[in-house]
Amino acid sequence: MLSRVADSLYWMAKNIERAENNSRIISTRLINVLEADDSEVIANRDWGEIIDICSSFDDYVATDYTQNPDTVIQYLAFQLENPNALLKSIEVARENAKSTREIIPSELFETLNDCYWASKQVDDKQWNYKDVDQLLKQIIQTSFTTQGIIESSLTRDDSYAFIQIGKWLERAEKTSRILTMMCEKMMEDHVQPTEKFYYECLRILQFVNGHEAFLKKYPPSIKSADVLEFLIVDNSFPRSILYCIEHVQDEISTMEDGQVSIYSEALFTILEKATDDLASISTHDATMLELFDFLQKFQGHCNQIGEIFSKTYYLVDPSLSESYQNQS
Amino acid sequence: MFKNYDPSKFYDEMLESTEKPKNHYKSFYNILANFSNHELYEKHEVAQLSFLRQGITFTVYSGEQSTERTMPFDFLPVIIPTDEWSRVEKGMVQRVKALNLFLEDVYHDQHILDDGIVPRDLIENNPYYYQQQAAGIKIPLDNHIFLAGIDLIKDEHGEYRVLEDNLRNPSGLSYVYQNRFVMRRVFPEFFNQHQIRTLEHQMSLLHDSLKSHVPDHSESPHNPTMVLLTPGQYNSAYYDHVFLAQQMGIELVEGRDLLVRDDVVYMKTIHGLQRVDIIYRRIDDDYLDPEAFKPESMLGVNGLLKAYHKKNVAILNGIGNGVADDKAIYAYVPAIIKYYLDEEPILKNVETYLLEEEQSRNYVLENLEKLVVKNVGASGGYDMLIGPHASEHEIESFRKKIIEEPHQYIAQPTIKLSRMPAFQNNKFYPCHIDLRVFVMSGEKTKVLPGGLSRVALKEGSLVVNSSQGGGGKDTWVIKEGGE
To answer: Of the residues A109, B49, B247, B345, which has the fewest C-beta atoms closer than 10 A?
Structure first.
C-alpha cells in the first residue's frame, strides 16, 4: 500500500473518532447544563475543561473569546480555525476518504460525504441549539455507521490495520485526556480516590459512553477508584486505555506477522513501555498525584507512538501538509 | 407531453414532430408518456441528489473561491440505432489509427511534413510539440494514444461530424458509467423494454489495453505494476481518476508518491519502494517532470523523462500528443487519414478556415457575425466567439485578435447542432447536444459503446462544457436485432 494512502486512512479514522468523541462530550455537557444549579464560576470552569478536552485551552484563550456557552460551542463546533472543531474533523475525514476512494468501500465515503453536506447545511454563525443537537447526533451516528461499514466490508489487510490503529490511538488519547482533567479536579478539591465524587464520575462515564457498561460491572454505586480502574485498565471496556493500546499492539503485530524487524523495533519497544506502565499502575492504591503523573507520562507515550508509527511506515511528514494537524 | 415543443428548427434526435417520435424512440416515448409531470420532477431530483451523495462532483474555481458542483443530469437518453453506431465505430477506429500513425511519424521520420501534406511550421510552432522530450523514442506498440475522447456532433441533416479530437487527457469516462448507473436506479422501467449494449467488461478491456504497453526493460513483463498518476483531489477531473484506477484495479498515485532512482520509477509504499512499469498519467506534459519541463511543477516527478527514454517505464498517453489534437491540425485530419491509410474519412470534419491563409482570413473577417471562432490552444469553451450570439463589441475584439495572431485562431461555420428534449424546471424544452466517444487502443483498437452525451442546458445555449453550465445524458446504443 502507498504510504500516502496509509497516512490518509490513519487520519481519516482519527478524525472520525475525534468528531464522535467531541460530539458526545459537548452533548453531555449541554444536557448537564440543564440540571446544574452551579454558580457562574463553576459553570465557567466546566466549560473551560470541555475546551481543554476537545481542543486546546491556550489556543482558545488566544482567540479572546469569552467563556459563555455560545462562544464555546461556536469554537468547538464551527470555527474552522480550530483544527479540532467538529466541522473541521468532518472535513478532514471526508477529504482523506476522498483521496483513498479507490481503496475504501464506496459506502464509507458516501456516509462521510452525507455528514459533510449535512454539516454544511447548518448556518455556522446563526445556529440555534436545536441545530447543534441535531449535528452532534448525526456525527455520532456517522461514526457508528462508518465503523459498521469497515467491519462488514473492508478486507482485513493493511488498509484495515491503518484505520484501526488510527481509531484506537485517538480513543486512548481521548480517554486519558478526560481522566487527566478528572485528576486535576480531584486534586484541586482535595478528594482522594476512595472518596465519593459522584457528579464528576457520572459525567466522565457519560463522556466515554461508559455509564451503562460501568453500572453492569460495579453496581450500584459509583466510586471514583472504580471509575479510574474501569477507564484505565479494564480489559473488556472498549474505551479503556489498556484495551485501546492492546488493540494497537495487536494490529501492528498482525500486520508484521508477529515478527519484530529492524525497522519496526522502535515501534514495538514504545508500545511495550506503554503497556508495562499500565500493568504496574494500581488504581486503588495510587495517590491522585501518582495517577496524574502516570497519565501525563501516558500522553507522552501516545505522542511518541504516533511519531514512531509514522516514521516506521514512511507516512507523510506532518509538517509538510496542513491538513494533518495534531491535537497537542 | 411535448405540446409547446418545436422540433422543426434543428435536427431533432427524438421527435419527428410535436406528436410523433422517431422510430428508435417509440418505445421510450410510450413509457415516458405514462409518467405524470410530478413523478418526472421527483425522479429528476433523486437523480441530481444521487450524484452529490456519491461525491461525483467537479470543482469550479473563481478567483480564490472554489466550490464543488455536480454535473446536472438529464434523464432523456440519447438513443443510437445499431447501424448508425457501427458507422461511428468504424469512423473512430479509422481516425485514431491515422492520428497515431501521424504522431509516430511526426516524432520520427516526418514523411508527412517532407511530402508537404501538413505544413512544417504548424508542427514546429506548436506549443505542444515536444521534439526534445519525445522525438526518436521507440515506445511500446508504437502506440501514442491509449485513450482518446473524440467529440462528435450532428449537423442539420442529422449527419455525424467530428468536432474535436482529445488525445491528451480526455475526461468524462466515469460519467458515462455514472449516468447509466443513476438512470438504472431512477428509471428501471425503461430497461426492461430496451435491448441496449452494456458497459460491463469495457473496463477490463481498458485494463488489458493498458497492460499491453509493457516497457522494454520491465522486470515483470507478464505482471507489470501499473499506476494512474493524478494531480490530486483538487483537480476538477479527480473523480474520473478515482473511478478509472478503481475499475482497472491499479494504484492511484500522486507525483509525491513516486520517485526515480537510477532511472527507474518507484512508488513509496509502507514497506519501502516498489518498481513501477506503466504510468497512465492524467497530468499534462509540461507538469510531468520538473527536470524536463516546467521547473516549478509541484505535481511531477523528477527524472521521469529519463526513465522513459531508457525504456524503464511506459507513459500513456504519449508525451507530445497535443501536436495532433490541436484545432489547427484538426483541419488536416482528413488529409492525414488519406495519407496514411489511403482511405476516405468515414466521419467528416466540420468545415474549418485556417486564418493564416489570406483568402480565408479575409472571408472570415467579413463574415464574423455568421461564424464560430476558436483559439487553437484553448479548450473548455474558453476564448471562443459564437458570431450569431455575439455583441458587436465581442466581434470587434475577435477581429483584432485575429489580425494580431492569425495562427492562434480558426473559424468554422455555425453549425446547426442537433437538439433533443431535456427536462428542466418542470418542463421539456429543446437543447443542443454533442457526444464524446471514447476510443481505447493497445494491441487492438476498441470503441466504448455510446459515450458521454453532453447537453447545453441553458435554453438556446450552444456550449456543452460542464464548466459552463452543460449537463450529461445517458447514451444508449441499441443491440443488434434489438430494434
So the answer is: B49
pLDDT digits (tens, 9 = 90+) for B94-113: 999 999 999 999 999 999 99
Output the pLDDT for position B178: 93
The band of B336, judged by pLDDT with boundaries at 50, 70 and 90, is very high
Contacts of B257 in chain A (CB under 8 A): 2-4
Q: Round to whole Å and give the CA distance between B50 and B70.
A: 10
CB contacts of A261 in chain B (<8 Å) are none
Shortest CA gap A301–chain B (Å): 22
**To the nearest whole percent, how much of chain A has pLDDT over 70?**
92
Task: Tell whether B104 is within 8 A of chain A (Cβ).
Answer: no
The span from the CA of B51 to the CA of A86, in Å, is 25
A7 → chain B, closest CA residue: B270
Q: Report chain A's C-alpha Rg in angstroms.
A: 19
Residue-wise burial string across B134-172, b where 16 or more C-beta atoms lie within 10 A, e elsewhere: beebebbeebbbbbbbbbbbbbeeeebbbbbbbbbbbbb
What would the mean pLDDT of A118-128 be, rounded to a whole number? 91
pLDDT value of residue A161: 96
Lowest average pLDDT, out of A10-14, A157-161, A247-251, B380-384, goes to B380-384
CA angle B450, B453, B454 (to 5 degrees): 165
Closest-CA residue of chain B to A317: B256
Query: Could you tell me which chain A residue has the CA closest to the CA of B227?
Result: A2
Residue B148, strand partner residues = B439
Mean pLDDT of A85-98: 95
| pLDDT for A328 | 32
Q: Boundaries of CATH 3.40.50.11290 in chain B?
A: 216-312
Q: Which of A2, A109, A313 sits opposite B251 (nearest CB)?
A: A2
Q: Which pLDDT value is given to residue B380? A: 64
Name which of B55, B254, B272 is nearest A4 (Cβ-Cβ).
Answer: B254
Residues of A in contact with B67 (CB under 8 A): none
Torsions phi, psi of B471, nearest 5? -130, -175
According to CATH, where is 3.30.1490.270 located in chain B? 351-413
- CATH assignment, B351-413: 3.30.1490.270
Which of B271, B273, B275, B276 to mutate: most A Cβ within 10 Å?
B271
Comparison of pLDDT for A85 and B406, the residue scoring more: A85
A3, A106, A109: residue with CB nearest B269: A3
Mean predicted confidence (pLDDT) in B369-388: 83
Is the CB of B242 less than 8 angstroms away from the CB of A102? yes
In angstroms, the CA B173 to CA A43 distance is 57
Chain B touched by A1 (CB under 8 Å): yes
pLDDT greater than 50 at residue B86: yes
Q: Would an 8 Å CB–CB cutoff place B298 in contact with chain A?
A: no
Asked if B50 has any chain A CB less than 8 Å from its own CB, the reply is no
pTM for the full predicted model? 0.88
Kindly determine whether residue A4 and residue B242, on different chains, have CB atoms separated by under 8 Å. Answer: no
Per DSSP, what are the bridge partners of residue B73? B472
Using the beta-carbon criterion (under 8 Å), do B233 and A98 form an inter-chain contact? Answer: yes
**Contacts with B, A 223-282, CB within 8 Å:** none
Give pLDDT, residue B71.
84
Mean pLDDT for the stretch of residues B231-251:
91
B482 falls in which pLDDT band (50, 70, 90)? low
Does the pLDDT of residue B327 top 90, yes or no?
A: no
Q: What's the sign of the alpha-carbon dihedral B214, B218, B220, B225? A: negative
Across the interface, whether the CB atoms of A314 and B52 are under 8 A apart is answered no
Fold exhibited by the domain B216-312: Rossmann fold (3.40.50)
Pairing mode, if any, of strands B278-281 and B314-316? parallel
* DSSP label at residue B71: P
